Amino acid sequence: MLAEIAGLSDELWNAGGSMTVGQFRAQVLDKYPAMRDKKFKIAVNQRILDDFVSIETPAEIALLPPFAGG
Amino acid sequence: MLAEIAGLSDELWNAGGSMTVGQFRAQVLDKYPAMRDKKFKIAVNQRILDDFVSIETPAEIALLPPFAGG
Amino acid sequence: MEKVHKPKKVFVQGPISPDFVAKSIASHQSKTGIGAHAIFLGQIRADQKEGGVVTGIDYTAYEEMAEQAFHDIREAAFARFELTCMHIYHSLGLVPTGEISLFVFVSSPHRRAAFEASEYIVEEIKAKVPIFGKELTGDSGHVWKENT
Amino acid sequence: MEKVHKPKKVFVQGPISPDFVAKSIASHQSKTGIGAHAIFLGQIRADQKEGGVVTGIDYTAYEEMAEQAFHDIREAAFARFELTCMHIYHSLGLVPTGEISLFVFVSSPHRRAAFEASEYIVEEIKAKVPIFGKELTGDSGHVWKENT
């Protein structure tokens, strides 16, 4: 559903130097303002991290919509 | 298992006048002292009653060993 | 709840089979308001007793009182939890070790009610239903089972 | 607990059948230390949404992360509760209304651990496993499902 907004499902993100999870989130919302209405979590290398954690590059970053298992 | 002690599974009990559940329990233990080592509940007309409740006669009284359902 | 719940047969002779459980589940797939099923199965353990290892339990009940107790538990559970369906089955007679003697099956729109009802019903059955169990050990021995 | 629990396949394609549940139960009858099984089944509800009634859910997952999350939940549950066995199955792809998409099966010597583990595992799955569900409504509409 997030891919529906961005219009693509994979994207290369160039970090200008080191970046925290929170900074990445801000950049995403800047580029895709429609994402502000959506809830999503950020997984870095398949782990949900706190906003203050730095992202080591290269990293696999995923924007995860609300979970619906069950 | 209680029947194993009393040696019979049905018995007619003559109440001398009205009797509470507690009084009945005392009479049972008097007649079958081996029952003192056993846990049992008393059901009167298929309901477990408190010791102070009077037994209306005629009543179906059952001595119930510990429950083991499940 | 205004609905009247018709009395159900609880006691079955001998063990409860996995296929019976499957049929019960399948019969609920047309009830599309259900979102959660909670199932509890009681299975006979090969416990070590003084007389040897338990090979099975021979269940008896003070049947008329037991049926009434099951009925009361059903009504209380329907009043207390938001349930779509509830089924309880208990064995009478011999149930060998490894087989199932109790099957409690509750269904609800949401998981919370199903979890809570399942636990409530099992605890109530253990505490309030006059079912007796002779644990068979070895050739001729037995020990009376007691719920805790 | 020192025992190593080998990784298990959780995802299955399409709905989970009642017969599969029965086979899982039957395969535990040789484990005679088990006294209690708790089973949770998630079934697809025909909820009313803006676009119409839900006819099914199409499940996808961020699979590699999901498998890791399931593994973590398994290990945590084994560490926390006295369990003999634990099995978790979740559907991917289309699961029509009335059919089963989640099957959590825990077995223990005693009922308390089974009840508690069952509830713990289901809550953890709902909160921590990246599974996504498109609720299909009518001919072409869909709504993204969101756990609460």
Automatic annotation (TrEMBL), chains A, B:
Alphabetized InterPro entries for the sequence: Beta-grasp_dom_sf, Mopterin_synth/thiamin_S_b, ThiS/MoaD-like
Pfam family, any one: ThiS
Protein name from the UniProt record: Molybdopterin synthase sulfur carrier subunit
Organism: Dyadobacter beijingensis
Lineage: Bacteria, Pseudomonadati, Bacteroidota, Cytophagia, Cytophagales
TrEMBL record, chains C, D:
Species of origin: Dyadobacter beijingensis
Keyword Hydrolase: no
Quaternary state and interactors: Heterotetramer of 2 MoaD subunits and 2 MoaE subunits. Also stable as homodimer. The enzyme changes between these two forms during catalysis.
Family: Belongs to the MoaE family.
Pfam families in the cross-refs: MoaE
Catalysed conversion reaction: 2 [molybdopterin-synthase sulfur-carrier protein]-C-terminal-Gly-aminoethanethioate + cyclic pyranopterin phosphate + H2O = molybdopterin + 2 [molybdopterin-synthase sulfur-carrier protein]-C-terminal Gly-Gly + 2 H(+)
Pathway membership, UniProt: Cofactor biosynthesis; molybdopterin biosynthesis
Xref: InterPro entries: MoaE_sf, Mopterin_biosynth_MoaE
Enzyme Commission number(s): 2.8.1.12
Record's protein name: Molybdopterin synthase catalytic subunit
Record's keyword terms, sorted: Molybdenum cofactor biosynthesis
Source organism superkingdom: Bacteria
